[in-house]
Specification:
heterodimer; A: about 800 residues; Ferric Hydroxamate Uptake Protein, Chain A, domain 1; Immunoglobulin-like; Maltoporin, Chain A; 3 domains; 22-stranded antiparallel barrel; 6-stranded mixed sheet; B: about 180 residues; 3-stranded antiparallel sheet; about 15% helix; globular; disordered N terminus
Chain lengths: ~800, ~180
């Protein structure tokens, strides 16, 4: 697996640099002739199945002659003189291959192109060929590093990229934060499908199995208009690799055990491919962990289990192809027992105690409170090449099912407290066309229907209401190569969204927010203590971007990108109005919110030499109508006093930079350094934004001995500074047991911390042609006790202590 | 542009489910909500009854609970106390106290007098393990004739550690917590 970082980009690479074309020579038949009567015959065939490639363009540059191969893949140049000819051979979806031929006789050349199929994946282009990545900037991380992350979550893995951090709710639930933005501002595209459950709130981790992905790209700066117009923070794209075009069976088995959580995972994938293009691919993962531990105590009820599998089958031919994909992702996650349903007094106790008030012996049991998630996806995609370009079609249907279990009494004990079912159908058509030799146009439309059903049988008022949503989008992206050094890209997207919701409001809340005067027309029925309403919203959003890549010199590249993105308020931001049990707080949304628009400017300078590389990335993001949630008040209820967290909408600015410097010393030593700084403020009063990632400094030293089974040893250091800029949202709370007023300090961030990690790996070849790889990784080597500002459970618990992970993988 | 032909083809798909069915979702009547706490103190010397209550019909909604105390507590006598929890959103009101007693080993009621208030509490009822429950209790002046004013806080905790040394270390989660302002005279 590879992770690629694509910064400041316009990421639409329509050119198929993906295609790694190779050329082999066969059959030199030698016939002597006279001057200027020589013949050069080319036969262009597919490297894999030896099928002829029709329509390959062959040109002799110095005499300006151009030909196209026939059905047998053959083209002849006649009447050539003795000379040195510069030949260029290209085929749709292949890089141009150049040959220099010293012609002294008739020549028959069989040219074998390795012809892969450009499925539906543009990001793969970026991952496979760095030099072709237009206005994109990418950053590769070695497979060795990633293998050791294999049973971690997506959020954990992405953490290693500069400028990306994760927002956590415990050890398993982590969401990526890109340049300070997260949740519905970061769009996840898994297998070309938008993962739809990110609008449910911050403690809902993405349903993506990283073992099923072969590469992950992070597109910062929200400019990936082909995927979404509302990615104010950025887009994360996970992909599986394309099957090989040979008769083959290949795959791998991966297993891992770890000390913290006393569990492990096993994962396998198998691909069966045929040279005629048919293939099938199977993948499955099982994970099981018990309670995790800090250096001092066990975090009771933090274990989880996860079971996933996927099947992909299809046909890949030169001009057409299709894929059918099905995946099922399911997990059950324990939530730290001591973190639930807290009154203000309980939170004060927890903060002063520093450790959870319930610590039991280690267990694999997952008790309440817990989450159960099920995500299934069916996807059909197809493409066909026409003379006007490549046309792609995609349809997907996904079901996200989430049950949250709380501590309850009596008959309701085993009923979920929240039971959400979200079904989404999407249909899309894209066209990639080449306008000229140096310009491309990519256009597409998308329609989507979504229905959310919160089951009322829970006996608890719905957190997210019933709603239906209809989306329609159209986009267009144009790229133009001005000359060898300047490349330009620009895109435009329009999104229409209609939401039709049914929501029960408490009458008292409805009136206290003045909604009875603002929105009398949406009331459907008055039930006394509750009011049924039918809010409808229409949003029309425009998003756009411009990107320029400038080659300062061959190793020095400058990237600039501006993007405009628009995000609609999500259902929790619009409709929340009550106690969020798992968060122990009353959350209040606002029906009056409008769309949030981001203006992101990013500038990257990249130097890449043989022995060192340096990247400086800086960004400024001006977000109008930025929606955020902060504590605003305390609410006495009969259940106790709860902090009230209210969604607010204000103009915000975020800016920051990431630096990365890697250097190779001798042949064996590698030193890597990176630092990320992000600042975020409200624009009108310069008040710091809540939950901005603190400054983060990472250093790494590695030593490798290739002769000794590719032994690699590395030591990583991560220093996270204390976040000194935070809004003060503290309150005075009356504590009856002590008859005093105490400050409820939910604002003050925890202190700085330093972690050391150790990683090592070796690889062996087995006798039957497969290979083994063994990884040993130790995280938090010094077993430090620390708290993380971006963990929502930080009031109740510390972070994980030392974790020793051993993994073995076998590829065949 | 041919693309627009294809775009047109997609439109029927987009609106295939636009015909909204008019099924409105059912309301959720919360079953476990505790809207009301009633506390009855019966004087052992026959001098009378003190009744305290807190009612919050909109739960976590913006309306504050209505808290009332019928009168002063006498410093000259002890009282038998009884706590009752109700869900008055249901009709007839559901008595949550029964559930609490059924699951006595998972519940405990805590009584906390503020420092200036000369009152002491003692548990009467116990769970199956012999640990205190607290739906019935005795309250008495710390010494006969001691007067003062302050607050009594009554807290129902779900899944506390039992036995425990008091509210601050019992853990669990607060199901209901009401503070009454009282005088002892």
């Amino acid at each position: 697996m590879n992770i690629h970082l694509i910064k400041n980009n316009a990421d639409f690479i329509t050119k198929s640099a993906l295609f790694f074309c190779s050329i082999l020579f066969f059959n030199y038949s030698i016939i002597f002739s006279q001057d200027c009567s020589y013949r050069m015959t080319f036969e262009v065939i597919d490297l894999h199945d030896s099928s002829p490639l029709e329509g390959a363009r062959i040109s002799i540059q110095n005499i300006d002659e151009i030909g196209f191969t026939d059905k047998k893949g053959v083209y002849k140049f006649e009447n050539l003189c003795t000379d040195t000819y510069f030949i260029s051979i290209s085929h749709d979806e292949c890089q141009t291959v150049k040959l220099e031929i010293d012609l002294k006789k008739n020549i028959n050349k069989k040219v074998r192109l390795e012809h892969h199929f450009n499925e539906l994946d543009q990001i793969m282009v970026v991952s496979e060929n760095r030099n072709s990545s237009r206005t994109l900037f990418e950053n590769k991380i070695s497979k060795e590093v990633l293998d050791s992350y294999n049973s971690r979550t997506l959020g954990d893995v992405l953490n290693i990229i500069p400028g990306v951090s994760s927002l956590e709710s415990g050890n398993y639930l982590s969401k990526p934060v890109i340049n300070g933005l997260h949740s519905s501002r970061v769009i996840l595209i898994n297998n070309d499908v938008r993962v739809e459950d990110q609008n449910w709130g911050a403690e809902h981790a993405p349903s993506i199995d990283i073992n099923s992905a072969d590469n992950i790209s992070v597109i910062k700066g929200a400019s990936s208009l082909q995927y979404a117009g509302d990615a104010v923070g950025g887009v994360i794209v996970t992909k599986t690799s394309r099957p090989k075009l040979v008769d083959s069976i290949y795959g791998n088995i991966f297993s891992k055990v770890q000390s913290n959580g006393r569990g492990g995972s096993i994962s396998t994938n198998l691909t069966k491919s045929k040279s005629d293009g048919w293939y099938s691919k199977y993948q499955a993962t099982l994970k099981k962990m018990g309670d995790f531990e800090t250096p001092d105590y066990i975090m009771t009820n933090t274990g989880f289990s996860e079971r996933n599998f996927s099947i992909k089958t299809g046909l890949n031919r030169i001009d057409y192809g299709f894929d059918l994909f099905y995946s099922l992702f399911s997990n059950e996650i324990g939530i730290l027992r001591s973190s639930h349903a807290h009154t203000a007094g309980d939170i004060i106790n927890a903060i002063s105690n520093q450790i959870p008030n319930l610590i039991e012996n280690f267990s694999y049991d997952i008790n309440h409170p817990k989450q159960k998630n099920l995500h299934s996806l069916i996807k059909l995609s197809a493409f066909k090449n026409f003379d006007f370009g490549k046309l792609k079609f995609g349809y997907d249907f996904q079901i996200n099912d989430r049950k949250e279990y709380d501590i309850r009494r009596g008959d309701d004990r085993d009923k979920p407290a929240s039971d959400l079912n979200l079904q989404t159908h999407s249909i899309s058509i894209d066209l990639i066309s080449k306008l000229s030799d140096n310009s491309n146009l990519k256009t597409g439309i998308l329609g989507r229907y979504q229905k959310n059903f919160p089951d009322p049988d829970t006996g608890i008022r719905r957190i997210i209401p019933d709603y239906k949503k209809y989306d329609f989008s159209i986009y267009s992206v144009f790229d133009y190569t001005i000359n060898n050094d300047i490349f330009f890209e620009s895109g435009l997207r329009y999104d229409y969204s209609h939401i039709n919701a049914y929501k029960y409001y408490r009458t008292s809340f409805w009136e206290s927010r003045n909604y009875d005067e603002l929105f009398p027309e949406i009331v459907v029925e008055d039930l006394g203590t509750q009011i049924l309403t039918n809010p409808k919203f229409n949003f029309n959003n425009i998003s756009a971007n411009i990107g320029i890549k400038f080659n300062v010199s061959s190793n020095n590249i400058l990237y600039f990108n501006y993007s405009l993105s628009s995000r609609n308020p999500n259902p929790s931001e619009l409709f929340s109005e009550g106690l969020h049990h798992s968060a122990g707080r009353i959350e209040i949304g606002d029906l009056r919110f409008g769309a949030e628009t981001g203006n992101n400017f990013a500038l990257t300078y990249d130097i890449n030499n043989d022995d060192y590389s340096f990247t400086a990335n800086t960004f400024v993001n001006y977000i109008n109508n930025y929606i955020y949630i902060v504590p605003t008040d305390l609410m006495p209820t009969i259940r106790g006093v709860f902090p009230v967290w209210e969604y607010l909408q204000d103009d915000a600015k975020l800016f920051g930079f990431d630096l990365k410097y890697d250097r190779q010393y001798f042949t064996n030593f590698f030193l890597g350094h990176q630092i990320s700084i992000i600042k975020g403020y409200e624009r009108d009063n310069d008040k710091p934004l809540i939950n901005m990632p603190p400054v983060n400094l990472k250093n790494q030293i590695s030593y490798s001995i290739p002769e000794f089974n590719n032994l690699n040893l590395s030591l990583e250091s991560e220093y996270v500074f204390r976040q000194n800029e935070y809004p003060n949202n503290n309150f005075e709370v009356y504590i009856p047991t002590e008859d005093t007023y105490v400050t409820l300090d939910t604002s003050t961030p925890p202190g700085a911390y330093h972690l050391l990690n150790f990683a090592s790996s070796v690889g062996f070849n087995s006798e039957n042609g497969g290979n083994y790889k063994i990884n040993l990784r130790i995280e938090n080597l010094l077993n430090n006790l620390y708290k993380n500002y971006l963990n929502r459970l930080r009031y109740f618990t510390h972070e994980m202590g030392r974790n020793i992970m051993l993994s073995v993988s076998y590829s065949y | 542009m041919k693309i627009f032909k294809y775009a047109l083809l997609a439109i029927p798909f987009l609106y295939f489910s636009c015909d909204d069915d008019d099924d409105t979702p059912d309301p959720v009547n919360e079953e476990e909500v505790i809207t009301t706490m009633n506390v009855t103190l019966v004087a052992h010397d026959g001098s009378g009854t003190v009744f305290m209550s807190s009612v919050d019909n909109d739960g976590e909604g913006p309306n504050l609970p209505e808290v009332s105390v019928s009168g002063p507590i006498s410093s000259m006598t002890s009282y038998s106390g009884m706590v009752e929890f109700l869900n008055e959103l249901e009709d007839p009101a559901e008595d949550i106290t029964e559930e609490v007693i059924e699951e006595a080993d998972e519940h405990q009621v805590f009584f906390t007098a503020s420092s200036g208030l000369p009152l002491e509490f003692a548990y009467v009822d116990v769970d199956s393990n012999g640990n205190p429950l607290g739906t019935q209790f005795v309250v008495a002046p710390t010494s006969e004739g001691a007067t003062g004013s302050g607050t009594i806080t009554i807290t129902l905790v779900h899944e506390p550690e039992k036995p425990n040394d008091g509210l601050s270390t019992a853990g669990g989660e607060t199901d209901i917590e009401v503070t009454f302002t009282v005088t002892v005279e």
